[in-house]
Amino acid sequence: MKPWLRPLTWVLVLLLLGGGTYWVAQNTYWAEEPTRTARRGAALTDHNYVLRQWLQAQGSSLTVVAQLDPLPPKGTTLVLGSDLWDMQQQRLQAVQQWVAQGGHLVVMANVLVDRTAEDAPDPLLAWLGLKLERPWEIRHRQKVAANHRNKAASAPTDNDDEEDDEDDEDADPVTGNHDTAPPSGADDRVLRDVINPREKVKCNWSVTEPEPGSANLGPDYAAHFTSHFPGLRTYALCTETNGVLRTTQAPRWGLQDALGWRVLRLPVGQGQVTVSTQYLLPNDVSELERDHPALMAATLDLHAGDAVWLAETEAMPVLPLWLWQVAPATCALLLLAAATALWRAVPRFGPLRQPAPDRRRSLTAQVEGTAAFLLHQRSPLLMQVQLRALRETWTRHGTASPAIAVAATWPELARAIAHATGLEAAALTAAGNPTTKPRTVRQLLHDLRLLETARRRILAAPRAPTSTGPQP
Q1: Which of 83, 189, 348, 415 is the least buried, fewest Cβ under 10 Å from its Cβ?
Q2: Smallest Cα–Cα separation from 253: which of 279, 236, 232?
Q3: Is there a contact between 383 and 436 (Cβ–Cβ < 8 Å)?
């Protein structure tokens, strides 16, 4: 190798390494990605762990109960967070009295989510004088109303009856109100966004506390309304709720958007009731984003030192235990019947013995098998064969006259055989009579045994002497 090639090789290697390092530095970057530590301790067993820790940070406490008996003390916030409220409505009257005496009841969306499809109104909404509507239903009505207004503006008609029909079609099917436009102060751009909602990006939905002087509110609104956070009127959230509330009374506090009320707090006696169309209780830290904690604090009307009770699911015994407590005798009979059926269905195992060798059955075994099959099927063929054998035996070995031997009727032959064998004539006649009613397997077996006994007695009887000389 030439001396000048070695340094040149090192220079080329260093240039390649430097170029590769520069390319990696220009096309890559270092980023820190936070990772969540695995749950441990109480967070594994308590699914309200996040809510409990958040309330403790606010200076409040959380008590989770499985039933509403007894009710919490006065001045406590009771949250209905169970979707099995239908099974707890027997305590609705007690809850109403508790609220009227100074309690604060908070009703979440999962309690009201599937109640509008039923014929009977929701007891909670009927008690508070509220109506729950779906956002897509409101948008659909507004879209239909806007289409009718556009058609009326582009092609006016002189027929008053047709205009009345269109007005009836434009009317709200729930309230009967012909005005389906959004609240006053909304411009045409807001109306277009409500009718034709565009694809929304994440976390761009918000609800707002209305101004006390809004024209769409009653005159008593300013006197009753109290803001939880005076410096916060608009709450930025990520997910739109699945309901809109309608009320006829002045709320104590509430949040609304272009479609209507999303959260309402109404005074009831000395207490108050807050209805939220969104489930606010967090199950994970990721749900405490944007203004969600502030909305939760405002909905719960939370202050330092408040006690919050969460009613989740009605505590009920397990169904088998409840059935055993209510009807033990019936359960015992059902268990006995099930055990008997299972015992009958279990296959039986015979004794452990060597299987029989494979070989052809004898003629005797074949005849016995065929006879057993005919006996089981109650076939008349087996009886006919038995009667033929008896008649042939009587003809060959009987002591009667030839006229009796070839008798055409069975009763005469049966009386002759009974006289010769000492058997009962009536039983022998009934056994071989083919006109009797259908026999059972046991009766057929008895008759066959009787006929076979008669045949064998005829064979065992002494035969009459016969002459070998010429017959006259």
Answers
A1: 348
A2: 232
A3: no
Does pTM surpass 0.70?
no
The amino acid present at 22, given as its one-letter code, is Y
Per-residue pLDDT reduced to its tens digit, 338-396: 999 999 888 877 767 777 777 777 777 777 777 787 777 777 888 888 888 888 888 88
Residue 47, helix vs strand vs coil: coil
Phi, psi of 104 (to 5 degrees): -120, 115
Query: Strand, coil or helix: what is 271?
Result: strand
| pLDDT attached to residue 315 | 60
Cα Dmax for the chain: 156
179-184, Cβ contacts within 8 angstroms, sequence gap of 24 or more: 180/141, 180/142, 180/145, 181/142, 181/145, 182/142, 182/258, 182/259, 183/214, 183/216, 183/256, 183/258, 184/214, 184/215, 184/216
Which residues sit opposite 274 in a β-bridge?
Answer: 106, 265
> Which structure tokens are listed for 130?
């509220």
Say if domain 42-311 classifies as CATH 1.10.12: no
236 by DSSP, 3-state: which? strand
Rounded CA gap, 265 and 280, in Å? 15
Q: What is the DSSP secondary structure assignment for residue 358, as one 8-state letter?
A: -
- 415-419, long-range: CB within 8 Å, 24+ apart, which pairs? 417/390, 417/454, 417/458, 418/454
**Where are the extended beta strands (E) located within 88-133?**
104-107, 130-133
Give domain limits for the chain.
42-311, 363-460
Where does 222-294 show beta strands of DSSP type E? 234-237, 244-247, 253-256, 261-268, 271-276
Residue 332 has pLDDT above 90, yes or no: yes
Distance, C-alpha 12 to centroid of its chain:
73
| Dihedrals phi, psi of 234, to nearest 5 degrees | -110, 125
Give the residue-averaged pLDDT of 200-216: 67
Element (H, E) at 327: none
pLDDT of residue 289: 81
The per-residue DSSP string of 408-439 comes to SSHHHHHHHHHHHHT--HHHHHHHH-TTSPPP
Strand 244-247 relative to strand 130-133: parallel, antiparallel, unpaired?
antiparallel
Tell me whether strands 261-268 and 77-80 are parallel, antiparallel or unpaired.
unpaired
